[in-house]
Each structure stands twice: as C-alpha cells, then as structure tokens.
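Let us work through a complete example step by step.
Step 1: write down the sequence.
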Amino acid sequence: MTIEPYFVRFFVIIVSMSRKIILIGGAPTVGKSTIAKALSARLNLPWISTDQIRTILQVAADRDKCPTLFTSDNLCAEDFLNKYSAQEIAKMEYQQGVDVWPGIKAMISNDWTWRDGCIIEGVNIIPKLIAEEYGDKPNIKTIILSDKDEDRIRSVVYTRGLFGKADGYSDDVKEKEVDWVLLFDKAITDEADKYGNPVVDIRKNDEDISRVLRALDV
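Step 2: predict the structure and record it as tokens.
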C-alpha cells in the first residue's frame, strides 16, 4: 500500500489550517473595498470582491434556480427601483448572498492559487452561512462593517450611485436606494451579532483600518 495519498491528505490539511482567510461584509457604501485594499497591503494578502465571484457564477448559473443573480437584467435603474420596494430589494440582496455562497465557499476551500490565504469582501458575505460551514475554523475570520449615518450613505448614493454611475439615472429614485441600504445594514449587523462576528462602525476616517485590525485580532 502506497503512503502517498495519506501524505498528500496530511499536507492539504496542514496548508489549509495555515491559510488566513478574512471575510469582510456589510451594506453598500460602507467602504468594504477600501478596507480590503488597506488590509491587503498591511497583511500581504490578495483580495477579491464577491462582485467578481458573482459575475463568474452568472456565466453558469441556472436563472430559474438562482433568480437573484439576474434581478436587474433588462431593467434600467428607474424601472428596477420603481418595481420593487426598499424591503424587497434588501431581501433580494440577502438572497443573492445565499446564491453566491457556493462560489465564495469554493474560493475558501478549494482555491490553492493563493497559498497564504486571501481577503474576500462584498455585500454577499452572509454571517449565518459562514458560521454553519466554518464556525470552528480559527484561521477564517469574518467582520461586518456598518455605517448608519444616513447623510454619508446619501452622499455616496447621489454622487457615486449604486445601480450604476450616479449621473446615469435620475435622482428621483435614489432615496429608495438609501432606504434599502439602511434596511440591509440592520439585517446583516443583527445576524453578525447573533453569530458572534465583530461589527465595526465605519466613520470614514484614518482610524477605521486600525479599528478593523483590532476587531480581527490580526
């Protein structure tokens, strides 16, 4: 009997335990990409957005089984935001995270391109799913960023835009984007509290990255 399969299995286990995985979730406008980029530089880890993972999944996904991956297809901002309430959009955004989860899980468990680990950030990070799958893995850390300052959220929505570039659609529908962002923020931070994930209130200042590092204990 050859011992090679056992050696390979042992090697994979050791490497998987040493990989550092940091998951950064939170509502749109909170600054997840900014924090991920700063952490990437501090910890020398590559980072990827769940937006990119979602785009990859859309190529192969079944529209009937994962409709939230395609909710805005063939709809302009006005049509989409007039068709759905803020509550409906917040719920769809959460369900989209459920549909994107297989891709995120594959990055965590099966991708060995980044042997030291990686940072995954995005609105599709769902604390419940992470806790159920990886709750006992100390090398996998989840943090949720929060910003309940309506003026800051409104500023991002009106100047940068959420559905697309802000100047690409009317201001008449942007207030609904502010509303669903606040609803999603509450839902995802409540869930983070339930599953023991640290929540950092982002202030959009130089102290944010230090506070995130402390919360992650890295």
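Step 3: interpret the result. The radius of gyration is 18 Å.
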